[in-house]
Amino acid sequence: MTETVNIIIDGKPISVPSGATILQAARDAGIDIPTICYHEATTSNALCRICVVEVENSRVLVPSCVATVNEGMKVETKSERVIRSRRTILEMMDSTTDLSESPEILRMMEEYQAVPDRYPQAMERTSLPIDDNPMFLRDYAKCILCWRCVQVCADDAQYAYAINFSGRGYDTQISTFYEITLPESTCVFCGQCVGVCPTGALKPKRQWLLEQGRTPDEIMDLTRSERRARRRQTQSELSEKA
What is the torsion angle, in degrees rounded to the nearest 10, for the CA atoms of residue 181, residue 187, residue 189 and residue 195? Predict the structure, then answer.
């Protein structure tokens, strides 16, 4: 028999399985808590902090995606302090990152009345799109460092370990090890990283080419040529090693 604990969320008494996270408990009770870095298919690491809640007697706001429930816990998901924190996080995110293809985050900004130009002197993350393979494009100007792609590429799904964080502080970004191209890495082009990306930083190559005005026939010819070129390069490298 599963042990349960009794908690109160937004004044609503509920019983949940012991060991459940606050986020799971809230969702089971029909209470919405916004998330960005959280994904059901990846391990939670509380990176974005948009899911923070206020727990009675806790000095700081608590990330609900990793914090587990305790007997008698009282949680507020929409207190003034929580709302102000989420709004600030969204405003800081918008000040440095291109969120134009992040509809869920843009909806959050509207809901929390976040001001897009709150920090006009913030240094925006800029980088050119990386087009090094025929499968998908990497545009890290849109990356919010949610870590979903890294996790799904590693222990959470694919075990390919092709990508990880690089750099430190403000210069942190997602990259391959030693910044080699994806075809040179252990990437198997499964597309799972693209599937969990919430911002358009990873995009299918054909979709990107369509957005650039290319026709389906042009895209087919282009991607076919790229695959042939990659195949010739691989064969040449193998011949040199032999």
Answer: -100
For residues 177 and 109, membership in a common domain is answered with no
Q: Which residue type, as a one-letter code, is found at position 73?
A: M
Instruction: Give the whole-angstrom CA distance, residue 110 versus residue 225.
Output: 44
CA distance 177 to 199: 22
- 77: domain CATH number is 3.10.20.740
Domain of residue 181, residue span: 136-241
Q: What is the pLDDT of residue 238?
A: 59
Q: How far apart are CA 63 and CA 68, in angstroms?
A: 10
Residue 33 domain-assigned (yes or no)? yes
Cα 74 from chain centre: 29
The pTM is what? 0.83
Retrieve residue 233's tokens: 């390069």
Alpha-carbon distance of 158 to 161, in angstroms, equals: 8
Segment holding 138, helix H or strand E: strand 136-138
Q: What stretch of H or E contains 60?
A: none
Least confident of 65-69, 86-90, 152-156, 211-215: 211-215
Q: Which residues contact 241 (CB under 8 A, 6 or more apart)?
A: none
Whether residue 4 is found in the same domain as residue 113: yes
Residue 20: closest CA among 35, 32, 9, 5 = 5
104 and 33 co-located in one domain: yes
Q: What angle do CA 44, 136, 240 make, to 5 degrees?
A: 110
Alpha helices in the chain (DSSP H): 22-28, 80-96, 103-111, 148-153, 192-196, 205-211, 216-241
